[in-house]
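Batch job 17 of 40 flagged for manual review because the log was empty.
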Amino acid sequence: MLLNKFEKFLQSVDLNVYREKYRPIKIVEMDLPKEIQAIAMLYQVYWDQKKFLNYDDFYKEYLKKYKTEIEAFRQKITMCKDCFYRGLPARIYRTWASIITQIHAGYVAESVFGDETVVMSAELDHQGADFQVMYRGKVLNYQVKKESFSGEVRRGKGGVKNKIEGEFIDINYEVPSSDYFENPKKKDGEYKLPYLRFIENKELKRFPNGFVVFTPFPFEKKKKEIDQLK
């Protein structure tokens, strides 16, 4: 089953190593032109081709595919070669970690709604949906809504929802700092609120390596709602 295979892949990623390596590096933070963005390739590799590459291998493939365009962009912004190629992998890693989490949600949705019910692509992403489910005549446009525990909501696709048909559904993605999992209790023995909120959330689960992913719950709930209409 593809979902199980993808979950094994996610659990094999050493997030701590990548975080330590890339978190301090924020050199290439400007908007990247569409021709060198990694989003389309991420969907092609992990969703269309079902190739579950680790980040280092994906980044090598990305550099190989867009070598000419990437170098043209570096020269255009007149950034030194050393700085740019030190900052670029950190920038692409942040996109990689975010998108493969969304792709996992697509595999979870497919396990609930059935084979060939889920569509995912860069084009759909630009139109306002992280992935689309077609089930019993209904079109469901799922959008991952990332929310910090300070209440800040980060959404990148607002205002474009009218471009595609179907119902739009937000699924909330809240990730407490890893500190809360390492030290979940306060001095008085009570669980800290962010940790408590997370473990009581039926829609999310956390792998031992720190990856937070969606459970089948939100999709099963929607499927049941549609099934009851028939």
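Reviewer: the log was empty due to a logging misconfiguration, but the result itself is present. Residues 149-156 have pLDDT under 50 and may be disordered. Unflagging and moving on to job 18.
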